[in-house]
Structure formats: C-alpha cells, structure tokens
Amino acid sequence: MIYILDFDGVLFDDKRFKSDFRRVFGRHGVTHNAYEQTYRQAKEAKRGAYGIDTHLAVIHHIYPRVDISGLRRDLFVLAGHSRRYIFVDAKTFLVAAQKRGDKLFLLSTGDKLFQETKINASGIVPFLNNVFIATSSRKASLFAKIKKQAGRRETVFIDDKREVVDEIKKHNPNVRVVQMVRGAHVVKSDYVDTRIKNFIEFI
What we know:
Elements: E1 2-5, H1 14-27, H2 32-45, H3 52-62, H4 68-79, H5 88-100, E2 103-109, H6 112-121, E3 130-134, H7 139-150, E4 155-159, H8 162-171, E5 176-180, E6 194-196
Helix pairs in contact: 1-4, 2-3
C-alpha cells in the first residue's frame, strides 16, 4: 500500500500550533489586529501563498521598532519543537504502517524552510520514504510524480483541504482519496471516497 499524506491538519495539530505561533508575535509587541493585517498583506504579496520572511518584511515596513531578527529566531525555535504537535493517533498509524511494509510519502505545502524545520523536528521523518514540499498550486503535479514512483500499487491520498482532495480525485479517479476532518472548521468535500476524524481505522 502507498500512502501520500498531508502534514498540517492531518499528522500535525496546526490549529494548536497557529495559536502558539501568534503568541510569539504578541510577545514581540505585534498585536492581534496587526498580525491579521500584516498576514493578509503578506499572502497578497505572494498571490495567496504564505512566506514567513515576506510576513516579517511587511511587519518591519509598518512597525520598524519590532525586533524582526529576534521574532524570526523565536518562530523557528517554536518550529523546532514541532514534535509536541504530532497527533497521537498519527504517530500510532505511522508505526503500524511501517511495520506492515507500506510506503509513506509526505506531500506538504508552505514556506519551504519553515516547513522543513517543522517536519524535520517532528520525529516522523524516519517513517517516511520521501518528503515533498510545494506551493498549493503545485501539489497536484507533485502528486503525479509520487504516483509514478508508486507504480501500480494501491494508493491512498489523505489531506484535509477540500479544494486539494477534490482536485486529486478529479484527476485520479482510481486513487482512494480520504479527507481528514479533525474539527468543524474543515470544509467537507462531497467527492472524496471517505471522510475520517483520525487514523484509527487505518491502524
């Protein structure tokens, strides 16, 4: 079996992480409203993608008194403690899948350096055959690359974002596409094969 897995919201508690991420900005004097405003501007500057250094540049431009180097350092310190945000059921699944001889690929999106830091510190890399990090617009093309490596083996794709699972299912009808729904904030897909709340049924 081949599993192609998303990171944030699937293996990693991004909701709790984002709350702590915002608190780091607060400790450096960036208010909640200032954070939200600069976050939106940073995403607009990168056409919808988030880049941590772009965000910090926006903050520095509007709030020049903020210690940007110290803020950046503390954000990466937080990312370096990502192991604490891995869901317990996700770790149990990874252990079980590795014992079965399944192949596990991580297909994540986000700021490349920051995402690599989170993933490498998470403790899950030894369970993975390969890690791919892409912008949202490239996720489908990287999926095709992984699928080609997998050959004819049965493939399961697991992601939480509706637009991602819908696109993968549309172009790969023979792949079992699963949406992870770990909370009411997840917009549900009508096209996936299965929706799950955790990894229990895959263990």
